[in-house]
Amino acid sequence: MKRIKIKELLSTEDFDREVLVKGWVRTRRGNKNISFIALNDGSVIHNIQVVVDLAVFDESILKLITTGSCIAVSGTLVKSMGQGQTSEIQAKEITLYGTADAETYPLQKKGHTLEFLREIAHLRPRTNTFGAVLRIRHALAFAIHKYFNNKGFVYLHTPIITGSDCEGAGEMFRVSTLDPVHPPLNEDGKINYSEDFFGKETNLTVSGQLEGELGAMALSEIYTFGPTFRAENSNTPRHLAEFWMIEPEMAFYEIIDNMDLAEDFLKYLVTYALENCKEDLEFLNNMYDKELLKNLNFVVSNKFERKTYSEAIDILEKSGQKFEFPVKWGADLQSEHERYLVEKHFKKPVILRDYPKEIKAFYMKQNPDGKTVAAMDILFPRIGEIVGGSQREENFDKLKKRIEELNLPQKDLWWYLDTRRFGTAPHSGFGLGFERLVLFVTGMSNIRDVIPFPRTPKNAEF
RNA sequence: UCCUCAUUAGCUCAGUUGGUUAGAGCAUCUGGCUGUUAACCAGAGGGUCCCUGGUUCGAGUCCAGGAUGAGGAGCCA
Predict the structure, then answer these.
(1) Residue A267 has pLDDT above 80, yes or no
(2) Residues contacting A448, CB < 8 A, separation 6+
(3) b/e A348-380 (16+ beta carbons within 10 angstroms → b)
(4) Does A128 contact strand B, using a CB cutoff of 7 Å?
(5) Which of A4, A87, A364, A366 could be joined to A390 by an S-S link, Cβ 3.0–4.6 Å?
(6) pLDDT digits (tens, 9 = 90+) for A334-362
(7) What distance lies between CA A183 and its chain's CA centroid?
(8) Is A205 strand, coil or helix?
(9) Is A404 helix (H, G, I), strand (E, B) or coil?
(10) Whole-number average pLDDT of chain A
(11) Tell me, in Å, how far CA of A290 is from C1' of B55?
(12) If 0-12 CB within 10 Å is exposed, 13-18 middle and 19+ buried, where does residue A85 land?
């Protein structure tokens, strides 16, 4: 007999037939005549109830069917005789694949704190919460590919090991095969990277954008979706040392096209989750954030507010709010400023653009005013900055001048500058932090709970 | 990295002004119960009070240092 997933069994009314299910036991209860097993196989948040008649089964095997054990059950799918579920399986045969010692198995029937579950990240996918989060995470990843594929974007695999340290997005993790105790040294006592594996200093990528631009200047529209690494000592519920990022890059898109795409993209993804992860979202709504579904529906049905950085500064200055950090044109917006704009003033997602060039990256398109660049950030309630992007500077001379002003290592960027030298074009792109999206959609409050195995400072377990 | 808070049974927590043998709920184990719904009822076992040092007749409790975790800030996605 072929195994049927619990998701399929729970959605059928084709009763009184023989079925085979396999999964992990959530709880078992009953008396000496009858026993009820709640079985889950991860295909859906709900369990199927297996009914065991103790006149047919030996008590010794039943004793081994404890919370966490893995079994296969064949029996008859019937309309449930009890309240609380519509169908159940009358067991005829049970195979015990793996026991789980009740004394030492860490997961109980009762609720655990998220902090405790982080310590047992190898087992937490077996909980309702992480089952729901991981299914939603999968659905969003799938929807990202679907969205871009529908629009004719090409999925470009940018390198994970990078030789340029000018991506400008924070501290990097070094990649090296040199002897860490006695590395080869130059005459000046510094490490001689010419003897390293790649013959130069290399790191894990902090962004695929620069390579993404190379793809866009040939394929028109590309996107990347891969792991990203930041060696920042960030200890917050919104930061990971290893996270996944989506970076579309589009030739012939100007800043407003870029904003339109990002807004449409985010709404598509949230809509996809609402339509395809209904039961998981309902569970999270009930258990963690009673406003979750309301907030998700609000985001997809309202236009994002669009303002320039200067207008935002004006609003903040006139707000009469007391801020810990002063509001000043030219300074980057602080968390408290962003939160005020999104949560108090506009009460909806906000797209800000045209930031002072001093606080943004070298590659952003310089505006005619000489003071700002065509950058855009999307700010979400609770999450803060979920998207950061810009139109790129396509003018060779302006870009070169900016690189010189900022003292960036021009010789490492020769290939990047070549795109402006040969057949340059206006183009734009943005980056979306995948875990921040999952955080928003699931209503979870710590980013370590929306990735299976989080990497944070001092933690690379599992 | 900075600020704040926390760390007591497998889990979640209580523990009075420093005072005898450190408690509860759940989990586990044993027994009971004719269809249960985080089943229920009864009983039992279970402790390096995070670590190191100090103050004191006496420290889970006070002090110092450290570790780990959480929240806020910075950095950023």
Answers:
(1) yes
(2) A118, A237, A240, A454, A456
(3) bbbbbbbbbbeebbbbbbbbeeeebbbbbbbbb
(4) no
(5) A364
(6) 999 999 999 999 999 999 999 999 999 99
(7) 37
(8) coil
(9) helix
(10) 94
(11) 50
(12) middle
CA of A115 to C1' of B69 (A): 8
- Tell me how far apart the alpha carbons of residues A9 and A30 are, in angstroms, rounded to a whole number: 23
Query: Please, are residues A37 and A54 in contact by the beta-carbon 8 Å criterion?
Result: no
Least Cα distance to A292 among A277, A305, A311 occurs for: A277
The pLDDT value given to residue A169: 65
**Interface residues 395-454 of A with strand B (CB < 7 Å):** 431-433, 435-436, 445-448
> CA-to-CA distance for A92 and A281, rounded, in angstroms?
34
Distance CA A426, CA A169 (A): 23
The CA–C1' separation of A197 and B22, in angstroms, is 59
List the domains of chain A with CATH numbers.
Answer: 6-105 (2.40.50.140), 126-170+206-449 (3.30.930.10)
- The span from the CA of A455 to the CA of A459, in Å, is 6
Q: What pLDDT shows up at residue A320?
A: 86
pLDDT for the residue numbered A7: 96
Looking at residue A166, its pLDDT comes to 61
* Complete DSSP assignment for A131-149: HHHHHHHHHHHHHHHHHHH
